[in-house]
Every structure is written in structure tokens, then in C-alpha cells.
């Protein structure tokens, strides 16, 4: 147990009124070491307790230190969110009832164990709170998370003297995390500034795979990136994350619903443009594109068949050779294993695009390949490569991509000032 945080009957409370307890969310076990290192280097936190079945870190640090960092808070990439810890109760052998057993039990816990007045002093009074509930395992299984949030909002659990009101849309978020291993209540203070999955309204390609595709294309400031089959726009979102300074990020799709969806998902992105167009007849000038990154139709979920794709891929390749800059142009294409003969014949017939690397990747259970193709002048095009691995990765593994993707974000940003 960390000095200064004591556990009483399973409830974690601060013993020093001058110091405040914070919690941070980590997305995966693989981020734990990086998270600890960042806490030490940026916030001077030497010890942090792993909580909530490894999903959280609980530590001591004044909120003022977080605030004083300003933009330097962006050095923290490994933590998803940081919040002010109102209470944390673990389910242990000595305290088997860490998780609340009923809504009344939970309301009592929030009313009696959370010091709303102290929190209002630290975070500013007169604000509107909203409750966000996350539930996993068997705890309060008979209730939906929205029902729990509503019941807390209506239940008057916030101390009236705190000067806060509860609303459906508040300017402060109270997070209530319920699981079989315990309960954690906190107020969100900072979160990752990047466009992330949380902002994507409609899911499409796995964002980690989309990140890997863009990373393989090695985007540089000022370059024009095009996705010929934009779907829901995940590739463009990841391109923006990896290289905010791209000249433009363009996406096209034949399907009106996809165009709409990609437009929604990329609405906040700088210099992004989505259009309805055919990948085989793109309304752009020859040699006007630096990078093409596309998740091609497989003939699996998105209609078509491997036979149809033979014609489609041939036309797409011809269009890519017209659109890409001859000197530095490069493309990264994803398709499934069944379409490999189509890709192989396109590569054989290509006038100037050559295969640089072909990497295997699993999408769910679907065996797929990522093809990096480039002209002779593109960076990396002539390197001697490890078979099946991109030159920037040490070894295979989407898990590694996931970690690298997180560590390349813009970093934490305060949501409460
Ligand atoms: C495999 S999906 C792409 C999924 C996308 N990466 C995502 O994240 O949602 C293929 C997309 O290609 C589009 N498509 C199929 N044929 C096309 C064509 N000739 N021109 C443009 N888009 C096409 C489909 O409408 C579909 O949205």
C-alpha cells in the first residue's frame, strides 16, 4: 500500500488533507510500465497502486501540479484519462462487499463516502455534473448503465452544500466504474487530446490496423494522402493522428451511406475532405497524390467477389499509377488472403509500382495481407527488408502497433481548468 493512502474496510481515503488522490485509466497491461515511467518523469509520482483489476492506477499528486504543467501535460501519452478520486473500494477476502449490491447501496456509497464539498473546492463550485457509469462482470447485472446513471442523478447523492447540480449534460463528468473487483468513483480532469475511437460514431476498420496501414506509408508534413475506399473514414482519422501536418487527407467511396459515415467520423479533422466517387475514375489530377492508403473491398462483408475484384483491382492499380507522384509516390493496400492472386497479377502488370513489403495481419479470424508498393524513388523502396515485416517495426504483432500508436498521441489535456 502506498504511504499516505490507507485502506479502511476496503475504502481508500486520503489521510493528508493537503494532498489529493488521483486515478488514471490505462488501456492495456502492456501500457503499465510506460504509464509508471511517465508519472515519475512528468509528475514526480514514484508510487502508484494498480487498481480495478489492472485497469487503473491510483496515486498521490496535488491537482495543482497537473494544472501547473499546462501544455507540458501532453508529454503523458500512456494514460487514457486522469481523474480526481472520490472513492475506491476493492472486493477482497477481508472486504467481500467492495462492489455495491443494489442501486440503494451504490447511492449510499456516493452520498456517504464521497466528499463532494472538498471536490467542489478543488475543482470549482457552481458546476453541472453528469454521471457516466461503466459496468462489467456480474455487479448490478439487472440494470443498464444508463438506468444506474439516471438513478444516481435523480437520487440526490451529491451533497447539496457542495454547490453543484446534476444534469444530463454537465461540464464535469463523474465516472462510476463498477466491476466484480470493486467500485471507483472519480471526476474526470484530463484526457487524451487526440481524435480517438471515443470520437468515432460508427465503427469501421480496427483503428490499430488503420494506424499500421498509415504508419507503413510513412506520411510526411505537407503530403497529400488519399483513401480510395474510405468506408467509415478510420484510415483518415489515423492519418491525422500520425501526422497532423499532412497537406490534405482525401477519402472517396461509391456508397452514399459510407460517404455520410466517413464525413461524420472525420468532421473535426483539419484538411479532410470526403467525396462520393469511383476509385477507378478519380476526379483528381495525374501525379497529384503522395500516398494512397486503402482497405480494399474483399468480397467478404462489403459485397462483390474475388472474381469481381480481379477487374476492380486492375483498374484501381492503373488509377494509382496515374494519381501517384512518380518519384516518391507510395501506396499501402489491405486485402484478404483469397485476393492475393489478384494483387499478384496487378503487381506483375504494374508499369512502375513495385512491391516493397507484404505483411500478414489477422482481422478477426480473417487472414489478410498488407501490401506496401512504391516507385523506385520512394523512401524505403530499395531497402533490404526482413520478410513480412515493415522496416519500422522490430517484429510482428498488432499488440506492438497498439502500444506505439498510443505513445505517438498528442498527449493528455485538461478538461477542467
Ligand atoms: C473494406 S471496405 C473499407 C472499410 C473502411 N476502411 C472502414 O474503415 O470502414 C471497402 C469500401 O470500398 C467501397 N468501394 C467498393 N468499390 C468501390 C469503388 N469502385 N470506388 C470507391 N469505393 C468503393 C465500399 O463501399 C466500402 O466502403
From TrEMBL:
CDD domains: AdoMet_MTases (cd02440)
A Pfam family of this chain: UPF0020
GO molecular function: tRNA (guanine) methyltransferase activity
UniProt signal peptide: none
Top-rank taxon, per record: Eukaryota
GO cellular component, one term: tRNA methyltransferase complex
SUPFAM superfamilies, A to Z: S-adenosyl-L-methionine-dependent methyltransferases
GO annotation, biological process: tRNA methylation
Residues annotated as domain Ribosomal RNA large subunit methyltransferase K/L-like methyltransferase: 205-354
Protein name: THUMP domain-containing protein
Organism expressing this protein natively: Chloropicon roscoffensis
Amino acid at each position: 500500500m502506498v504511504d499516505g493512502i490507507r485502506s479502511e474496510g476496503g475504502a481508500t481515503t486520503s489521510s493528508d488533507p493537503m494532498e489529493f488522490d488521483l486515478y488514471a485509466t490505462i488501456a492495456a497491461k502492456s501500457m503499465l510500465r510506460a504509464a509508471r515511467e511517465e508519472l515519475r518523469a512528468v509528475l514526480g509520482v514514484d508510487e502508484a497502486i494498480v487498481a480495478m483489476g489492472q485497469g487503473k492506477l491510483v496515486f498521490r499528486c496535488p491537482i495543482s501540479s497537473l494544472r501547473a504543467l499546462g501544455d507540458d501535460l501532453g508529454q503523458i501519452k500512456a494514460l487514457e484519462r486522469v481523474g480526481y478520486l472520490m472513492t475506491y473500494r476493492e472486493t477482497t477476502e477481508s472486504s467481500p462487499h467492495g462492489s455495491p449490491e443494489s442501486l440503494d447501496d451504490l447511492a449510499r456509497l456516493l452520498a456517504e463516502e464521497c466528499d463532494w464539498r472538498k471536490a467542489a473546492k478543488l475543482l470549482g463550485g457552481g458546476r453541472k455534473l453528469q454521471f457516466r457509469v461503466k459496468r462489467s462482470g456480474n455487479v448490478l447485472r439487472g440494470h443498464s448503465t444508463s438506468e444506474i446513471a439516471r438513478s444516481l442523478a435523480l437520487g440526490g447523492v451529491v451533497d447539496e452544500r457542495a454547490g453543484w447540480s446534476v444534469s444530463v449534460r454537465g461540464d464535469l463528468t463523474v465516472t462510476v466504474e463498477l466491476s466484480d473487483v470493486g467500485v471507483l468513483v472519480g471526476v474526470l480532469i484530463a484526457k487524451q487530446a487526440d481524435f480517438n475511437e471515443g470520437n468515432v460514431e460508427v465503427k469501421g476498420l480496427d483503428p490499430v490496423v488503420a494506424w499500421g496501414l498509415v504508419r507503413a506509408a510513412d506520411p510526411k508534413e505537407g503530403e497529400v494522402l488519399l483513401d480510395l475506399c474510405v468506408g467509415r473514414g478510420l484510415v483518415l482519422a489515423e492519418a491525422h493522428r500520425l501526422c497532423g501536418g499532412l497537406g490534405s487527407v482525401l477519402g472517396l467511396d461509391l456508397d452514399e451511406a459510407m460517404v455520410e459515415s466517413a464525413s461524420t467520423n472525420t468532421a473535426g479533422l483539419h484538411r479532410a475532405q470526403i467525396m462520393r466517387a469511383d476509385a477507378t475514375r478519380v476526379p483528381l489530377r495525374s501525379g497529384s497524390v503522395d500516398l494512397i492508403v486503402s482497405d480494399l473491398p474483399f468480397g467478404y462483408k462489403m459485397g462483390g467477389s474475388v472474381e469481381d475484384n480481379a477487374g476492380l483491382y486492375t483498374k484501381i492499380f492503373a488509377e494509382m499509377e496515374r494519381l501517384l507522384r512518380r518519384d516518391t509516390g507510395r501506396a499501402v493496400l489491405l486485402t484478404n488472403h483469397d485476393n492475393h492472386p489478384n494483387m499478384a497479377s496487378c503487381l506483375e502488370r504494374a508499369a512502375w509500382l513495385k512491391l516493397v513489403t507484404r505483411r500478414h495481419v489477422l482481422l478477426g479470424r480473417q487472414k489478410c495481407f498488407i501490401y506496401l508498393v512504391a516507385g523506385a524513388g520512394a523512401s524505403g523502396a530499395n531497402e533490404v527488408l526482413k520478410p513480412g515485416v515493415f522496416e519500422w517495426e522490430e517484429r510482428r504483432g498488432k499488440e506492438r502497433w497498439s502500444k506505439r500508436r498510443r505513445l505517438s498521441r498528442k498527449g493528455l489535456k485538461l478538461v477542467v481548468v
